[in-house]
């Protein structure tokens, strides 16, 4: 696990945390985005601390590329804890119809007070928060019916604060993605890096790809064999994760002069294919390890 993942202190993150804290008084509730592939790892512990008693609705993105069996287990886990969570997907639209009913349930007391004051129908305000590259721009565009937020599959695209009207009866305050100062759990930092929440250019890409290989060997070995048409024994226990990465590169024909395997190109390809769902519907966080 590279030390640059364990201790990552980008200066703008502290500024974003201050902005979130300062703007809480301007919103009725907070929408926190998580990644359905890593529900635990994408949960920023500072968000709960900053938001305090402010009503919070959690939306878990990328449903269509998360493992359906694991998603079912996570839904049961959150329900048992009494947390308001909706799994959704911007591509299929699944889950979007649940957002406003869940928000109204969450804000039932406040909405009743508005009705008593003759303010029924008052437009609500929400702040949307989450880690970098969790899909905030995609859901904002889906909710607003426009392309007001820039969408790219890399962290750090959302830069400036902006209010955006939605088709569901509330306005959204957008905020940049925010991580927390230090990851005490090695796997959390790795999962965030694998899914792209941490910029690749500050990491050793081959080490990160080898870490993903290890996750796949543990959780979805058949997906590696199927996707890269690996031969029998390619995932043998005595082989290191880097050995397997080289076999993937060889299978793809990623060779350089002298017949050496281009492991950097292989690493970039493997991470990109995981992030785009080409390896299948995968979930790295498991409920049994949630606490």
Which descriptors would you attach to this protein?
291 residues, alpha/beta, Rossmann fold, elongated
Please summarize what this structure is.
The protein is of the alpha/beta class and 291 residues long.
Describe the structure in your own words.
With 291 residues, this protein is an alpha/beta fold. The chain folds into two domains: 3-174, Rossmann fold, CATH 3.40.50.300; 204-289, Conserved Hypothetical Protein Ylqf, Chain: A, domain 2. The protein contains twelve helices and six strands. It has helices at residues 3-6, 11-23, 45-51, 68-80, 99-106, 108-116, 136-144, 186-195, 205-219, 221-228, 241-252, 263-275, and strands at residues 29-35, 56-61, 85-87, 124-130, 162-165, 170-174. It has a six-stranded mixed beta sheet, sandwiched between helices. A hairpin with a 4-residue loop joins strand 5 (162-165) and strand 6 (170-174). Helix 9 (205-219) crosses helix 10 and helix 9 crosses helix 12 (263-275). The radius of gyration is 21 Å and the shape is elongated. The protein starts with a helix and ends in a 16-residue tail after the last helix. Residues 1-11 and 151-159 have low confidence and may be disordered.
Strand percentage: 5-15%
CATH homolog superfamily of the largest domain: P-loop containing nucleotide triphosphate hydrolases
Identify the strand order in the major beta sheet.
Answer: 3-2-1-4-6-5
Task: Supply Rg.
Answer: 21 Å
State the secondary-structure class.
Answer: alpha/beta
Identify low-pLDDT runs: 1-11, 151-159
């Amino acid at each position: 696990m590279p030390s640059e993942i364990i201790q990552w202190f980008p200066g703008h993150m502290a500024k974003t945390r201050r902005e979130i804290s300062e703007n809480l008084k301007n919103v009725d509730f907070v929408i926190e985005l998580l990644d359905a592939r890593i529900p635990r790892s994408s949960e920023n512990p500072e968000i709960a601390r900053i938001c305090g008693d402010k009503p919070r609705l959690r939306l878990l993105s990328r449903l269509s590329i998360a493992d359906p069996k694991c998603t079912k287990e996570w839904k049961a886990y959150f329900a048992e804890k009494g947390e308001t969570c909706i799994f959704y997907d911007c591509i299929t639209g699944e889950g979007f119809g649940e957002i406003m009913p869940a928000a109204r349930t969450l804000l039932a007391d406040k909405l009743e007070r508005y009705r008593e004051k003759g303010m029924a129908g008052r437009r609500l305000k929400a702040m949307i928060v989450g880690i970098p590259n969790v899909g905030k721009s995609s859901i904002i565009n889906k909710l607003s019916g426009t392309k007001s937020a820039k969408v790219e599959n890399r962290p750090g695209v959302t830069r400036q604060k902006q209010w955006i009207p939605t088709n569901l009866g509330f306005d959204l305050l957008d905020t940049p993605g925010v991580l927390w100062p230090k990851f005490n759990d090695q796997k959390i930092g790795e999962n965030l890096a694998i899914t792209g929440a941490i910029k690749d250019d500050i990491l050793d890409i081959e080490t990160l790809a080898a870490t993903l290989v290890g996750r796949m060997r543990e959780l979805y070995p058949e997906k590696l064999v199927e996707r890269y048409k690996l031969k029998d024994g390619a995932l043998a226990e005595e082989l290191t994760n880097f050995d397997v990465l080289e076999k993937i590169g060889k299978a793809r024909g990623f060779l350089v002069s002298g017949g050496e395997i281009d492991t950097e190109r292989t690493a970039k390809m493997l991470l990109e294919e995981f992030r785009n769902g080409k390896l299948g519907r995968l979930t790295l966080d498991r409920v049994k390890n949630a606490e």
